[in-house]
Amino acid sequence: xxxxxxxxxxxxxxxxxxxxxxxxxxxxxxxxxxxxxxxxxxxxxxxxxxxxxxxxxxxxxxxxxxxxxxxxxxxxxxxxxxxxxxxxxxxxxxxxxxxxxxxxxxxxxxxxxxxxxxxxxxxxxxxxxxxxxxxxxxxxxxxxxxxxxxxxxxxxxxxxxxxxxxxxxxxxxxxxxxxxxxxxxxxxxxxxxxxxxxxxxxxxxxxxxxxxxxxxxxxxx
Length: 221
Fold this sequence. Notes:
- The protein is α/β, with parallel strands linked by helices.
- The chain is 49% helix and 13% strand.
- It has helices spanning 11-22, 36-46, 62-70, 90-97, 110-121, 130-141, 157-167, 172-179, 183-197, 202-211; strands spanning 2-7, 27-33, 50-54, 79-84, 102-105.
- Strands 2-1-3-4-5 form a 5-stranded parallel beta sheet, with helices on both faces.
- Strand 3, helix 3 (62-70) and strand 4 (79-84) form a beta-alpha-beta unit.
- Helix 6 (130-141) packs across helix 10 (202-211) and helix 7 crosses helix 9 (183-197).
- The protein is globular, with a radius of gyration of 17 Å.
- The model has no long low-confidence stretch (mean pLDDT 84).
């Protein structure tokens, strides 16, 4: 059973999400929160699998709350998915850099929301849709921090190649076909790359690919 925590200051939004999620045989809503402080408190108490976190809330907002959750060593298994009204929201990129596993627009289709919840639990990042990749590319290109190219020295040539393919949004199966290897081999390369670079999940690996210059925004497929 996938346990989800809903964090949004609009009760109507939470009610809609709860009705959809609780109707699934493999998903249950463990709790709700109306602001960031309450969300962090309930997450520490309940340790849900997935948090659907509104990015804009009164008091402690979703971005700050996400940083507290992803920065807490006691909560390594909690996946945060940001909820936003705007597709191109600069705070979404900052949230992904802080450890969020992706983002969803609030008016997303119900089936897409369910796929997203199941995907992050399976270890995938919400990076396949073109709008997400474009958002990451846009804000990575404008990043004020220096490129982390030095970190790539820890990787083998094949791991760098795999990281670049992850960066343009390919799945493990697509990487396997591109490199003519098995999906399991591709997954192993991705996992080893994440470990070497200290990436919390696939989303952070994509960000690192852009920030290091391994992938350029114009390479989006």
